[in-house]
Design brief:
By secondary structure, the protein is α/β, with parallel strands linked by helices. It folds into 2 domains: 355 residues, no CATH class; 151 residues, no CATH class. Helices cover 59% and strands 6% of the residues. It contains 23 helices and 9 strands. The longest helix is centred in the C-terminal third of the chain and has 33 residues. It is globular and about 75 Å long.
Length: 553
């Protein structure tokens, strides 16, 4: 027979009461930390510790691998300041542009950028939470979010999705303050941050739509819309978006064409499936923090209905924002026939954490808050001490992915280029991951020359690009890429085609090798006077001499 659940709950309640009076010695440092929340130092310490520990995890876990291709693409997009590019809005590129004006081009630098972005996101969430709760509950909100994969594993891929981790809560905070105060300053900030979210990814239109939905659905809507606040927000948003809108109008709105080409054209039944998987994906992501909350709240969850009906006006506004960020993407997916990965919505999952914790009519006892802190810290420690080294070993010796070869391939291609040319390698194409990696890791930092609007079309490079000097790489098992590479040789009057092998190492242990197919086209003025036609056709026809300066045919 199982023991009566009421007896168990009485036992835990008694234990929590005893702990409140005389906590165990090992719990006392956590108590001192929780006592420091309203003194202003405990929450920053929590956020900095989270970012530092997971930065260490990334540094160890990817000792045998390089940056994710998305992060490398972000850097390529942001090499020069621009109001847009053919694939995404410009915010991720701006962030990379500004970051690399301060920090060097290195893996640790971009991993630091990723975790700094996550830390700012958590800080922004706390700005919202402290509007409704004090003390331990603020830490509970953040620790529940730290159980999500969004702020460490998802965050490491610094791209158009993850740049929204910080922008969405900042925009939501400003909108909340604007709705509550109707002050023009907060209204302008809300519009500016909403526009900044749009400059991060057009998916943020659902956040803007959720703000409108929340304002219309809220009982105090009349007061808000009779003020200048909504119009100040709209004006500020248009001012911030203005240069990008002009860029869209004068360049043919290529990001929209890209989005429609890649993500639209799905039939009705498939769109229903996509919508269902979107909701299931979000539910699965929230499962762990939801379970932790249920175990901590216990029978007090019976108050959920009453607590929901008693939400204060600010939380009611956030509730409608949350509803909008979930339902509007589902409606859009079905209405226009598009896929809708749940990954795109992770930056909005701070809202249910705030609603559940801040809307509860009870506060968790210190016993449960400390247990939650130990659980969160335990996951981080296990991640750094055990999971990160095992991941590095696995990626090096058992199951490598493309990231294991990026830097090695970039360095080897650059070395071979300088074996036949004294000029820097000017341009790179081919497999996107290898091309972005070469742009980042090569000392020459060649420009990525595969137009973003044709990124998945395998179009041939223009002749003027080839004439200035150009190179490309593919993994040899990627048939689509290697066939494309052979097509390029028909355009080049003089080219070098060869394969080479790269093999990662971890702590002196050789990893799984990979073979890279490469194609190099020298600048036209270097080729002048040389016979037309290929300099080499296949690896068996082309090798470098021992001096590394001339090809031997």
């Amino acid at each position: 027979m199982f023991p009566d659940i009421s007896v168990q709950l009485d036992y835990f309640a008694a234990m929590a009461a005893r702990s409140a009076v005389a906590p165990a010695r090992w719990r006392r440092p956590f108590w001192r930390w929780l006592d420091g929340i309203e003194k202003g130092w405990a929450i920053p310490a929590l956020i900095v510790a989270f970012a530092a520990v997971w930065l260490l995890f990334l540094l160890i876990a990817y000792l045998s691998g390089d940056l994710h291709a998305d992060a490398l693409e972000t850097w390529s997009v942001g090499r020069e300041f621009a109001w847009g590019n053919a694939k995404h809005p410009p915010l991720m590129g701006w962030a990379a542009y500004l970051w690399t004006r301060v920090f060097p081009l290195a893996d640790w630098s971009f991993q630091l950028l990723a975790m700094t972005n996550a830390a700012v996101a958590l800080w922004a969430v706390d700005l919202i939470a402290r509007r409704f709760v004090r003390g331990d509950a603020r830490a509970v909100v953040l620790m529940l979010l730290m159980l999500l994969p969004a702020y460490q594993f998802h965050a490491q891929r610094f791209n158009a999705n993850t740049v929204l981790l910080a922008v969405w809560p900042l925009a939501t905070y400003c909108f909340l303050r604007s709705f509550e105060s109707r002050a023009l300053g907060w209204a302008a900030a809300a519009g500016a941050f909403a526009a900044l979210a749009m400059l991060g990814k057009y998916y943020s239109v659902f956040l803007v739509g959720s703000f409108v939905l929340a304002a219309v659905a809220h009982p105090q809507r009349a007061t808000y819309f009779k003020s200048w606040a909504p119009w100040a927000s709209a004006l500020a948003g248009l001012v911030v978006l203005g240069p990008h809108l002009h860029w869209l109008a004068t360049t043919g709105a290529t990001p929209f064409a890209y989005a429609l080409d890649v993500h639209s054209g799905i039939d009705f039944s498939s769109s229903l499936y996509e919508a269902a998987m979107f909701l299931l994906g979000l539910a699965a992501t929230l499962a762990l923090p939801a379970l932790v909350w249920v175990l901590s709240a216990e029978l007090r969850l019976k108050r959920f209905g009453a607590d929901f009906r008693a939400l204060n006006p600010g939380l009611v506004l956030l509730f409608w924002v949350f509803v909008g960020t979930i339902l509007l993407p589902v409606i859009a997916a079905i209405a226009i026939g598009t896929d809708m990965p749940s990954l795109w919505a992770l930056q909005g999952l701070f809202l249910p954490a705030i609603l559940i914790v801040c809307g509860a009519s009870f506060a968790l006892e210190r016993l449960y808050v400390v247990n939650l802190a130990v659980f969160v810290a335990g996951i981080a420690v296990v991640g750094v001490v055990i999971a990160a080294p095992l991941h590095a070993i696995w990626r090096n010796s058992v199951s490598p992915n493309d990231r294991s070869y990026y830097r090695l391939a970039a360095v080897e291609l650059t070395k071979r280029w300088h074996g036949v040319s004294d000029r820097p390698l000017p341009a790179i194409s081919g497999d996107d991951g290898l091309a972005f990696a070469t742009a980042f890791y090569s000392p020459d930092h060649p420009v990525y020359r595969r137009p973003f609007q044709y990124q998945y079309d395998w179009s041939l490079p223009p002749l003027k690009t080839l004439e200035k000097g150009w190179a490309a790489m593919c993994f040899t098992e990627d048939e689509l890429c290697t066939v494309w590479m052979r097509s390029v040789t028909a355009l080049a009057p003089q080219y070098m085609r060869f394969d080479f092998e790269v093999q990662p190492k971890l702590w002196g242990q050789a990893g799984v090798p990979a073979t890279i197919a490469a194609l190099m086209v020298l600048p036209r003025d270097i080729q002048s006077g040389a016979p037309t036609g290929p300099l080499s056709e296949g690896v068996e026809d082309f090798n470098f001499s021992s001096s590394g300066r001339r090809p031997v045919r």
